[in-house]
Design a protein that fits this description.
eight-stranded mixed beta sheet, 2 domains, Alpha-Beta Plaits, Ribosomal Protein S5, domain 2, binds adenosine-5'-diphosphate, alpha+beta, binds magnesium ion, 43% helix
């Protein structure tokens, strides 16, 4: 993967090719990894992600004709539309727009709507994107392109929305312009990131607190172990889990599992079937584990959060049943090689696991996981560190 400076330069170079502009300003936004809090977002619960050092950069030049043109190193053909046409395109005619271009054009549309600004009053723009966020590895390249676009356009158009509002603009673009029914965790993490800190987010109130992780001072690193596995039943599995959570909440007469405590779970036993009970138990205990993680960080530091990370994995494996053998192998091998804690991260049925390791054991853990995969006959995983990093903004 390239360094951030290379990526900003790549965005500028592309802008020069597409629009002739030189030395244009750039903005960027990071991908993210979720430290803990899985499948809690749509249950109105808690999540605890952090922004990573892999970013999407956008170079921007203004133009006088009221058009918006987007270009990306991911795709040869730039896409151009009149700003005044965005309201017609989204959401009704979004299928006419090349899929990747719906992200930045959708952000332009959602931003103008959120600010109540008429398209005829803002300048036309050329936007060129380059990114080193791996796509589809569960690191949210989508939030990165949304965040880069939102911060660049808000500043250029003089739109004064705070970061939470810009995160909502990103979600609106993803939900309505792209057509992906996602929550707001990724955008909030990408917008609010800070070096060596994570975003403790209440998905009901959208209250967010940026909490120091202290990984650097404790000599800890976070490894991402991308299994490369993408299971075809991920979408169906997600829908089934969501439905089970809604069933359990309804049985207890509460709006969401967020409103259920670990003590309430006993009451649920007589109300739902055994599978639904286990699904609910994961969500209720996972919410508690997010709170425990934040408390433990404050009281005892990051080396003490290992057990709660492991408990999260066990809950996803046994109660929520969204792990796969590759993820279990990564977690088990990392722990056996001395990781402080490890768990699968993301929606499940494939994707990546994370391991919290001391810096001097990172290589040993990496080797151990790679050889466990080879012994099991799995394709080699892609293992790399991620560092809690600053959120979206203009590049220096
Ligand atoms: P992820 O887990 O990486 O967020 P998503 O499916 O949510 O995966 O989003 C990935 C999609 O976002 C890509 O397929 C592409 O359409 C769009 N995208 C992300 N980054 C870029 C980029 N730099 N240039 C163009 N499109 C991008
Ligand atoms: Mg995404």
């Amino acid at each position: 993967m390239t360094t951030p400076i290379d990526t900003a330069t790549a965005a500028r170079t592309l802008l020069t090719e597409v629009a002739g502009a030189v030395d244009a300003p750039t903005w960027s936004a990071p991908g993210r990894v979720n430290l803990i809090g899985e499948h809690t977002d749509y249950n109105d619960g808690f999540v605890f992600p952090f922004a990573i050092e892999y970013r999407t950069h956008v170079a921007l030049a203004t133009r006088g004709d009221g058009m918006i043109r987007v270009a990306s190193t991911f795709d040869e053909t730039p896409v151009e539309v009149a700003l005044s046409e965005l309201d017609d395109l989204f959401p009704a005619r979004r299928d006419e727009v090349t899929e990747w271009a719906r992200y930045p054009l959708g952000v332009a549309w959602a931003l103008l709507q959120a600010a109540g600004v008429d398209a005829s009053t803002v300048t036309g723009v050329d936007l060129a994107f380059a990114s080193d966020v791996p796509v589809g590895a569960g690191l949210s390249s989508s939030a990165a392109i949304e965040g880069a676009t939102a911060t660049a356009l808000a500043e250029t158009w003089g739109i004064d929305l705070d970061r939470v509002e810009l995160a909502k603009v990103g979600r609106r673009a993803e939900n309505d312009a792209v057509g992906a029914p996602t929550g707001i965790m990724d955008q909030m993490a990408s917008m609010l990131g800070r070096a060596d800190a994570a975003t403790f987010l209440d998905c009901r109130s959208l209250d967010a607190q940026v909490i120091d992780l202290g990984f650097a001072a404790a000599g800890l690193e976070l490894l991402v172990m991308d299994t490369g596995v993408k299971h075809s039943h991920a979408t169906g599995g997600y829908g089934e889990r969501r439905a089970a959570c809604e069933r359990a909440a309804a049985a207890l007469g509460v709006p969401a599992l967020r409103d259920v405590s670990t003590e309430d779970l006993e009451r649920l036993e007589s109300l739902v079937d055994e599978v639904t009970l286990r699904r609910a138990r994961h969500v209720v205990t996972e919410n508690q584990r997010v709170l425990d993680t934040v408390r433990t960080l404050r009281e005892a530091g990051p080396a003490a959060i290992g057990d709660v990370l492991v408990a999260s994995h066990v809950s996803m494996r046994d109660d929520f049943e969204i792990s796969v053998p590759e993820l279990d192998t990564a977690v088990d091998a990392a722990l056996a090689a001395g990781a402080v804690g490890a768990r699968m991260t993301g929606g499940g049925f494939g994707g990546a696991a994370i391991a919290l390791v001391s810096s001097d054991s990172a290589e040993k853990v990496t080797d151990a996981v790679a050889s466990a995969f080879s012994d099991a006959g799995f394709a080699a995983p892609n293992i790399f560190t991620v560092t809690p990093s600053p959120g979206a903004g203009r590049d220096a």
